[in-house]
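User: Here's a protein and a ligand (magnesium ion). What would the complex look like?
Assistant: Let me lay out the input and then the predicted complex.
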Amino acid sequence: MNPQVTRNGRPRILTGDTPTGALHLGHWVGSVKRRVELQSTHECYFLVANMHAFTTRVDLSAEIRRDSIEIVRDYLAMGIDPKQSAIFLQSEVPAIAELTFLFAMLLPFNRVMRNPTLKDEIKIKNLGETYSFGFPLYAVGQTADILAFRPSGVPVGEDQVPHLEMTREVARRFNQIFCKVSEHAEDSDHEKLGGTFPIPHADVGAVGRLVGIDGINKMSKSLGNAIFIADTPKEVQKKVGKIFTGRQSPTEPGDITNALFQYVDAFILDPPRVAELKDRYSRGDNIGDGHIKQEVAEALNKMLEPMRERRRQFEGDDRAIIDILKDGCIRANQVAEETLAMVKDATKLAYFPRRLTIG
Ligand code: ATP
Ligand code: MG
C-alpha cells in the first residue's frame, strides 16, 4: 500500500459506479465487498458517476436520476455505512470537471483511444461510429474522479485496470511537468519529492471479472446478463438456471473453469463442498448442471437476504437518500477543492481563493 495517509491518519480510497442500472453480483465481488472491508480502516469516497452515464444515455436523464438513487440504496444494502464513507454525486463536485479539462491536455488523443476498456465497450455496447465526443472523454474524466481525491488505492474490477494505468500516467506527468519530480523517480516517492499527486494503485477484488449468465461477457448492467443485488429469491433462482455451460448430460465430464464454476468458487463458501463438486463434475459422476445451479442459487440467496433486509429500510424514501448524497458531496468537495487549489498553485492558475457552498 502506498504510504500516503490523510490528516486523520487513514489512507484514502476512492472508487465509484456509473448509474446505467442497478448494481449486481459483479460489483459486489469486483469492488464493493472490498470497500465494505476497507471502510473502518480507510477514509472512503464513493462516487456515483452520473455525468459519465450521460456519455451513453444522453436522452435518458430521468433514468439516470432514478439509477443514481437506486445505486445508493444498493450501497446501503451491501453494507456501506454513510457515516463512515462519503457517498457523493460526480455532478456536484465541480473540481472533477475542471480537472478533466486540464488532464485532457496531459494525455495524447491516440493514447486515450488505444485504451482497451474503451475499445471493448464500443464493441460490446454496439456504439459503432456514432458515439459522442464525451464517450472517450469519460476515460479522461475518470482520471480526474480519482486524482481529485489523491487516493492511495482504488478498489475496482479488472476492466478498470487500463483506466487506472492512464490515471497513473496523468499523475506522473503532472508531477513531472508542474512539480519538477524527476522522470526517474519511483512511483512511491512522488509525493515525498513534492509531487501534488500520489500514484494510486488498482485494488482488484477477489473476482476481478465475474462472467454474466450468458457465460461469455463480463456481467454488466448494460448487457442484460446480470443478477442484481435487489433481485428477488425467485429471480435469482431463474437467472442462475440460465447460466450457460453447453454441457449435455450429468455423466459428461464437465469443465470446472466454466461460467457456472466461477459462481461455485465465488459464492459457495464451503471449501470441502466446492472441492467435492469439482471432483464429481470433472469426472462426470452423475451430477447435473441443474443440481449445481440449485446449490449456487441457495448460496446466493443466503448471501443476499441480509442485503434485501437492509434495503427494505430505505425503500420508497428518496429524501433520506438525497440527504446522504448531500452530506457526501459536502465532504467530497472539501477534499476535491483542496486538490484543485494545489493544482492551481502548481500550474500558476491560482489568482485568489474561492469557496464552494452546498445547500
Ligand atoms: P456498464 O455496463 O454501464 O459499464 P458495469 O456493470 O460495467 O456497467 P460499472 O459502473 O462500469 O458497471 O463498474 C463499476 C465497478 O464495478 C468497476 O470497478 C467495475 O470494474 C466493477 N465491475 C462491474 N462489473 C463487474 C464484473 N462483472 N466483475 C467484477 N467487477 C465488476
Ligand atoms: Mg462498466
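Summary: The domain at 233-312 is CATH 1.10.240.10 (Tyrosyl-Transfer RNA Synthetase).
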